[in-house]
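About this split. The held-out portion is used to measure sequence recovery: a designer receives only the structure tokens and must propose an amino acid at every position. Recovery is the fraction of positions where the proposal matches the reference. Here is one held-out target exactly as it appears in the evaluation file.
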């Protein structure tokens, strides 16, 4: 973990404890033989790799401006496999995008 400020580590630990209290998910320190693990870093933004198994490390980036309990919970949700509602495979059945209202070059798919 690259986040060394005590308050940052405390927020992350609190989020991990919340998962343990409410789910069967346990975040544990990485062991040398672990193939899948999370790297928590500051990598220019607030994001997380989407869940994968057998593929090595998954990055969670938590810049200073996104170190909050809610954001850590949110990014860990991506690590365990959750996507945003607007990214669901069936989203086009429920979301109507008005492309004419989007500034050219300012949309992301």
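Reference sequence for scoring:
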């Amino acid at each position: 973990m690259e986040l060394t400020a005590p308050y940052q580590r405390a927020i992350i630990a609190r989020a991990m404890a919340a998962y343990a209290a409410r789910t069967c998910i346990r975040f544990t320190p990485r062991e040398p033989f672990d193939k899948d693990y999370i790297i928590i870093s500051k990598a220019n933004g607030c994001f997380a790799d989407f869940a994968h198994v057998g593929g090595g490390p998954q990055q969670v980036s938590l810049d200073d401006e996104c170190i909050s309990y809610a954001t850590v919970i949110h990014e860990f949700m991506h690590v365990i496999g959750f996507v945003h509602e607007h990214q669901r495979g069936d989203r086009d059945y429920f979301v109507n995008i008005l492309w004419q209202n989007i500034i050219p070059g300012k949309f992301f798919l």
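Annotator remark: DSSP finds two helices and three strands in the chain.
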